[in-house]
């Protein structure tokens, strides 16, 4: 049975590529997420058809099954298997993003995926929200390219690290949103590269022994077999707030790493290249969301982070 991060791995499956917005260093404390609350659109009926922005929809308290129309969204993430995508109001900010489920598992069909990150579309579909209110998405979507619209880079929503902590549930404003941690007091320190909650229990001891060459020559094909790598994420700590960082989405289900710099479980068997708890980040961002009760930040581009050592 999969644990927390394996659930995320199953949901998103593959790479998410994003364009970063403005880095934290260019923002001020007045820009962080608790400064000025975003107001919902004028529509107040949470059970009928909705026409407005993503931020307005999410703050309206819409019920599952509501039909939605969003005139303009920008793509912030696209899975490598083309089954899911993240979209945002073009201006970014609080409540601005949401997951789009491109495939309907019940009937086995998929909507055409977006052309790429930053592309502008109109969106119609059905709003879904889990009973716990932690995860929401747009199902049965239709994405229509907006004629003449050039790709954009959605600004990152700067948030206090404490709002993304694994134990924090009051972070609806950041879920589904492209975010960046506000780090004026120092870097985000890596505190665990083997957290129990981020292990893939389908990865067996025999696979690890073969990968490491414990009983003979190493077989690197067993480092990241079809079930995926042993670990799908790690944890950082900022001022006592522990934040889960997922690597499940990039660049494929067989690769538990984000580029060469963020290797958690080495698919090439080079364990010397993995992250160390002595390392920290002067910048850390990506897509934040909650799935199966798990809150995690997913860097999806080398521009989403900066290792300090």
Helices and strands, with pairings:
Blueprint: H1 4-12, E1 50-52, H2 54-60, E2 67-78, E3 84-88, E4 97-101, E5 103-104, E6 109-110, E7 120-129, E8 136-145, E9 157-159, E10 177-181, E11 188-192, H3 205-212, E12 233-238, E13 241-246, E14 251-252, E15 255-258, E16 262-265, E17 280-291, E18 294-298, E19 305-307
Parallel strand pairs: 1-2, 4-8, 9-10
Antiparallel strand pairs: 2-3, 2-7, 3-4, 5-6, 7-8, 10-17, 11-12, 11-17, 12-13, 14-15, 15-16, 17-18, 17-19
In the CATH hierarchy, the third-tier topology of the largest domain is known as OB fold (Dihydrolipoamide Acetyltransferase, E2P)
Query: Biggest β-sheet: count, sense, barrel?
Result: 8 strands, mixed
Q: How many discrete domains?
A: 2
Report the order of strands and helices. HEHEEEEEEEEEEHEEEEEEEE
The multimeric state of the shown protein is: single chain
The portion of residues forming beta strands comes to 25-35%
| CATH classification class of the largest domain | Mainly Beta
Q: Tell me the helix content.
A: under 10%
The CATH architecture of the largest domain can be named as Beta Barrel
User: Structural class of the secondary elements?
Assistant: mainly beta
Count up the helices.
3
- Rg is 19 Å
Shape annotation: globular
For the secondary structure, the number of strands is: 19
Tell me, rounded to a whole number, the average pLDDT: 80
Terminal CA distance reads: 36 Å
Uncertain spans: 1-42, 250-257
